[in-house]
Amino acid sequence: MKNLIQSFFLIWFGALHSQQLGNFIPTNYEISLKKECDFNSDKQKDYILILSNKKENERPLISTDNNISKRMLLILKKNNNNKYEKVFESNEIVPCRECSGKSDNLYSDISFNNYILKFSTTNYPFDGNRYFTSTYSLKYEDNKFYLEKYEEKFYENAEDDNPLKVNLSNSDFEKRPFDFYLFNFGNNTWENQIIVNNKNVAYLNNIAFYYLQKNQNNIAEILLEKILQNFPERVVAWLNLADLQWKLEEREKAKTFYEKYISLMKSQGKDLNKIPLRVYERIK
C-alpha cells in the first residue's frame, strides 16, 4: 500500500510538473529538447527548452524559398514559491532544423551554468564532404546573451585527422547581443564581424593561411583584407593574399600584391633570400 501511495504521488507530481512547463509552450510549438540546469546557482532546478514548430517536418530540408524553420530557446527559472517563470525567449540563439545540412547534431552537450550557455553543433553541407563543428559559449547578461567564446573545427572530409581549429573570444568582437543567423550566414558572419588588433593579428593571419590551404578561399580573402586594412605594413599578409589571387586566377591582382610584398620586404630590411622563388616567377 505504501509503495502504491508513493507511486501515485510521483505520477501526480510528474503530471503537475509537466503541466507547469507546458504553460510556457506557445501554440503550435512542441519541445524538441529539455535539459535541467541551475544557471544562477540557487540550488533550484531550472530548465532549458528548445522548441520546434509542429509543422517544421512538413517542409523539405532543401527548399527553394528563403524560409527556414527557426527553433526557439526558452529558459525557465524556478522561484522561491516553487513555481517556474520565464526569464528568456528567442528564435535567434540556437540553429534551425536546416542549419546543420545533412547532420542532425544541432545542440550537442547543451548546458547553462554560472550564466554561461554552451552548446556545440555540426554543419554538414549537402554539397561535398567537408563539414565543421562549432562550439558556442554565451554569457547571459541583462536579459541578453553575448558571445564569450567561439571554437570551430573545419574538416575536409570524414577522414581528415588534422582539422583547422579556430579559437576566438569576446575580445575579438564588438559586444552585441548574439544572433546565431547573423554570426553564421549572409554578409555579417564571424569573419566579417571580427575586430583585428595587435593581440590577434598574427593568429588571424595564420588562420587565413590555413583556410587557404583548405581551399576555403572566401573566408581566407575576407580575413586577409581585414588584416591589411588595419595593418597595411604586415608583409606576410600581402604574400598570402597574392597567393590567393593567383589561385583564383586573378593574375593582375596577384602581381600587384606580390610587388607590394617585395617592396615591403625591402623597405623593412627583411632578408630578401627568404622571398619564395614563385614570387619572382609570377611577376615576370
Automatic annotation (TrEMBL):
SMART domains: TPR. InterPro entries: TPR-like_helical_dom_sf (IPR011990), TPR_rpt (IPR019734). It holds the Pfam family TPR_8. This is Tetratricopeptide repeat protein. It comes from Chryseobacterium turcicum.
